[in-house]
Amino acid sequence: MKIKLLPLFAVAAVALLVTVGPVHAELIGHWEFDNSGDVGQATVSSDLETVGDAAYSASGKIGGALALDGSGDYLRVDESHTLATGLPTGDASYTLAAFIQTTTNGGRGIIGWGNYGSNGQVNAFRTTAVGEFGSTGGILNYGWGGPFDSGVAAGGTHPGTIYDGQWHHVAATYDSTSSTKRLYFDGAEIGSDVVLGNDLNVGSANFRIGSTNGGEFMNGLLDDVRVYDIVLSESEISALSTPDSFDPNVNGDDNYDDLDLNIILSNFVADADPGGGEPDYNQSNLDDLLLVFGSPASGNASTVPEPASMVLLLFGAMGLMGLRRRK
Question: 25: which strand partners?
């Protein structure tokens, strides 16, 4: 009897987690580059038009990708370089994230906007050349000028790693409450900087993907470019960097919600042994649940459990682990 109650305890705890309700974090810009007929189509925010030879590639990290040759190619909203809908300006917190694949050693734009040439009025994210600012080659999130620049000496990767022609995940965050920027490479933090004594005042002009500062054109592939209006944690960024491990958007509608949860919970109830014996409640089921409640969404929101909800999920996990020990 105890064996049968344990999985029910796990399911009940997770059901209560849904009842308590998660806190939603906004994904305000998302470009997946999966539409071969319209590579600038947005999942979230504004659709973009191509400039130069910017084109679709079928060789993406996740489906398609944006192919750029480093010679004037990029994406924009329109000729006026209007800011894509919803992206943060002023001193708002943010997270920028993308997959890049390049063999070009140089300062190449990933995404950026603002008033270039004016201190603190830019949010630009690009690669750095080997030797630039003493770097071994890495990434830079700059605001233009002095204390507004972040990652100048703190964003290096292992020499040449970022230019090895492999897919790498890069991310930058800015926390307006502490004026702190952080840089991430393949899911791990590689540097941080504080905007000393100043707030950012990012403008709404000059928006581009694949180019920053009116140039700095990317030569290579970009995929899964994202903008959040919150500071994602290192664990959330790590989850973004490993999309092949598991996609908690199991029903494919680009939202992590109760529909996904219902599918995963059914694995607890219907995941039977091949011989028709006891249900096999395994670690993979638990990992799926944790990812649903801990990963940034590929739709409009990601779900982050409140502390009380996490306690309920912990009780469910304990029940599941207790069942595994008894088998």
Answer: 302
Closest CA to 107 of 141, 73, 77, 78: 141
Per-residue pLDDT tens, the chain, 327 aa: give them. Answer: 433 444 444 444 444 444 333 333 589 999 999 999 999 999 999 999 999 999 999 999 999 999 999 999 999 999 989 999 989 999 999 999 999 999 998 889 999 999 999 988 999 999 988 777 666 678 889 888 866 665 443 455 555 688 899 999 999 999 999 988 999 999 999 888 888 767 889 999 999 999 999 999 999 999 999 999 999 999 999 999 988 654 555 445 555 555 555 555 555 444 443 334 444 444 444 544 555 444 443 333 333 444 444 444 555 555 544 544 444
Amino acid at 268: F
* DSSP bridge pairs for 56: 66
Q: Which tokens belong to 55? A: 């084109």
Q: Which residues of 38-58 are buried (b: 16+ CB within 10 A; e: fewer)?
A: ebbebbbbbebebbbebebbe
